[in-house]
Amino acid sequence: MRINQNTALRGEKVTLVPYSSAHVPRYHEWMQSEELQRLTASEPLSLEQEYEMQRSWRDDADKCTFIVLDTERWAEQACGDEDCMVGDVNLFLTDPEDPTLGEIEIMIAEPSYRGRGFGKEATLMMMSYGVTELGITKFEAKIGQENEASICMFKKLNFKEVSVNSVFQEVTLRLDVSDHERQWLLEQTKHVKKKSYTEEKLPAGGLETDR
């Protein structure tokens, strides 16, 4: 969706920026990993297909995607986004009859950034954005049973396991955002600064216009 096309969310560990064509080569490189294909239940795409997917995610009204950057490296102003990328975080509006339900996905693609709180902060930031900007009141996360680290993280964020699909070997977790949960979420993300992406930082070589 285009609502976040000029939004940068800067946290302590991570900065979230809209997924643009400049990010596609690095993203494509990540997704050649059999481990990531397995963990995200994804099929490998060609580079051109990856560009098409990026355009689709940008334009589709039911998908909100941010690339996760290392805040410290990005703030140095010495490298473009592609050199600071660590993963992505997505919200999918999966129920046309209930636009307040969002399916959330987080991927920390760079192994050296896992287990260090980057995924947790990125997830909290996306949840806060979903609640305040998109009107989300219910979150679901569908995670492969073997991805114990991700399941554990979501449970620590107060998600509850609601079902297990033995065919797809997938666990579904859910969080209903009560007033108490909303206040907790906003408290957890009160340090996050919302900026204009184009003003905050131009990628190396200038801002690439999406195809």
TrEMBL record:
Domain named N-acetyltransferase: residues: 14-160
Catalytic reaction list: N-terminal L-methionyl-[tubulin] + acetyl-CoA = N-terminal N(alpha)-acetyl-L-methionyl-[tubulin] + CoA + H(+)
Keywords: Acyltransferase, Transferase
Pfam family, one: Acetyltransf_3
EC id: 2.3.1.308
UniProt superkingdom: Eukaryota
Listed Gene3D superfamilies: 3.40.630.30
InterPro entries according to UniProt: Acyl_CoA_acyltransferase, GNAT_dom, NAT9-like
Entry's transmembrane regions: none
Role this protein plays: N-acetyltransferase that mediates the acetylation of the N-terminal residues of alpha- and beta-tubulin.
Family named by the database record: Belongs to the acetyltransferase family. GNAT subfamily.
Protein name (database record): Alpha/beta-tubulin-N-acetyltransferase 9
Species of origin: Bambusicola thoracicus
